[in-house]
Write the structure tokens for this entry.
Amino acid sequence: MIVQPKIRGFICTTAHPAGCARHIEQQINFVKKHAPLKGCKNVLVIGASTGYGLASRIAATWGAQAKTIGVMFEKPAIDKRTASAGWYNTAAFEKAAEKDGFYAKSINGDAFSNEIKQQVIDIIKRDWPERVDLVIYSLASPKRLHPSDGTIYNSELKPIGDAYTNKTIDVMNGTVSMVTLQPASHQDIANTVQVMGGEDWEMWMDALGDAGVLANNVQTVAYSYIGPELTYPVYKNGTIGRAKEHLEQTAKALTLKLKPLHGKAVVSVNKAVVTQASAAIPVVPLYISLLFKIMKDKNIHEGCIEQIWRLFHDYLCAEQPKPLDDAGRIRLDDLEMRDDVQAEISRNWDKLDSSNILELSDLAGYREEFHHLFGFSFPLIDYNADIDVSVPILSIED
Ligand code: NAD
């Protein structure tokens, strides 16, 4: 099949297996350039097939020489439809892991369900007598089927209190326009907390703990974002921000629960990057396009793998981890939030429109990274060539 990008709004409905494999290879090569990390030997990554979770799995494997179990919700190829990008990423990850002699198992299914949690526990009991020493929680999902009563909760990206109007961009045609987001209802807030808050993280840790598969000194990390005041109404002070507050409260509760194992739970605040999840948030892709230009000009640009490498090197595998912030969080967004970076963003934001977007922002860089998420726009890959889209994942257990 000849596979070209088919982009609808903020998603691409096709993915290219060879391009996704190239994306994985680039991230592995980045990690291999650095000295090996210590610790983190048996790592469970929940949300392991794209974005920050995938980078975490790669950093754990080639950085810390860890065994990994990855959980994801991806689609294999069917008839004339390609698989999802996360499927091809995982296939390529496993192939590379096998070639380099690393243990890797992938479970494809709904991480919110009791069944998938049990499946993971069974594999750990079978394969890892030394148990799990690091659990990364990196789910980004638009909905959650609650395992207790079967309710489906949909998360909403809305401001709280007042409507919010700001600039946004159609990334593919470069049009900057104004968008108004209506405020969330109480139900929207509660639903978003159900999907993106900490309850499922806690259910995972409870299930793993009750099954006796957590090692002494276990660490668990969930990812969050804060961002600048510019995006506060749609992020930090919006529905998703409420869910992230819940995640932070959950980290505290989990740390107490993990005391007998001398374990700890922490939230890591990461920088804004192009992922399938961030592309869906109004205003944020325009902010990221501006941010990329400024951070690239200052030579401090980072993507998922650079961020996660720092997470492992400076915190999770460090003998002397760097200090947490006043609220007890890891801050990987330090470069994004630098005063000089944010001052330049504020200055350019006011001037920004469709006529000067290419000059003031790195829209081209944003588009390229967006294409890369689905395996497109990589040099030396012939996108007019016929390719077999039915790619197996070596270890898949679903
Ligand atoms: P992503 O969309 O790239 O990855 C989401 C992952 O979750 C995928 O592996 C997907 O398969 C998995 N997933 C989704 N629903 C699932 C389900 N029901 N069962 C099993 N797996 C499921 O997202 P991302 O941007 O990497 O986000 C991961 C975390 O990082 C989120 O908590 C997000 O808020 C946070 N974060 C993202 C950014 C950013 O700019 N993208 C910045 C800071 C923090």
In short: The chain has one domain: 7-157+188-282+302-334. The first strand starts at residue 7 and ends at 8.
